[in-house]
Design a protein that fits this description.
It is a single chain. By secondary structure, the protein is α+β, with helices and mostly antiparallel strands. The chain has a single domain (about 20-190), classed as L,D-transpeptidase catalytic domain-like, CATH 2.40.440.10. About 20% of the residues lie in helices and about 25% in strands. It has helices spanning about 1-15, 25-40, 170-180; strands at about 45-50, 60-65, 70-75, 105-110, 120-125, 140, 165, 185-190. It has an eight-stranded mixed β-sheet with strand order 3-2-1-8-4-5-6-7, with helices on both faces. The termini are far apart.
Length: about 190
């Protein structure tokens, strides 16, 4: 009951509003929940990043499994390395590539960041495509120049060296949620 009350306060304070889910496929949602259950991760939310969406549009979504809805969405930059362009990310798991890595991550461990709201979350790659994430210091963080609203046809290119980089407002909302979690949260980057 206390947890439900805390979530209601978060929803009120930070403006969380469930929105229609026409941005994540039902199969992805089902796979994400199954993965969370199989790997002893939090089963209330998942952070989904669809890199096939233009970087000037919202492509990061926090999905609430219990509500069956997206509760947070925002812009997310992709890495500049490997020949990535403003509209076409190139993906790599290689150290020094400055590329975004596709795959499922465990998000756990809040720490100080030099960027944005000065908070980041450690990301641990759980697949061959992102197994070097921790070594590469790929973390979830914000960067103040990232806008709070869609900027299409403009892009966010040049804002990331491989990390999922968010606006300060989006990061504050996600931080408020992640701080309440006892288990690691799934962050899934796909294209």
């Amino acid at each position: 009951m206390q947890r439900l009350f805390a979530l209601l306060i978060l929803f009120t304070l930070f403006g969380f509003k469930p929105v229609a889910n026409n941005k994540i496929s039902a199969d992805k949602i089902k796979d994400a929940l199954a993965f969370c259950k199989e790997n002893n991760m939090d089963t209330s939310i998942a952070i989904m990043v669809d890199m096939s969406i233009h970087s000037g549009k919202n492509r990061l979504f926090v999905y609430n499994f219990k509500q069956g809805a997206i509760i947070i969405e925002g812009l997310c930059a992709h890495g500049v390395g490997g020949g990535s362009t403003p509209t076409r990310p190139v993906f790599s798991n290689k150290e020094g590539s400055y590329c975004t890595s596709l795959g499922k991550y465990k998000v756990k461990g809040r720490a100080y960041s030099n960027w944005g709201i000065n908070i980041h979350y450690k990301m641990y790659g759980l697949e061959e495509t992102n197994s070097n994430a921790f070594k590469r210091i790929v973390v979830l963080h914000s960067y103040s120049p990232v806008p709070n609203h869609e900027i299409y046809p403009q892009t966010l290119f040049g804002q990331s060296a491989g990390c999922p980089v968010l606006s300060d407002v989006t990061m504050r909302k996600i931080d408020a949620l992640l701080k309440t979690k006892k288990k690691p949260v799934l962050l899934w980057i796909y294209s």
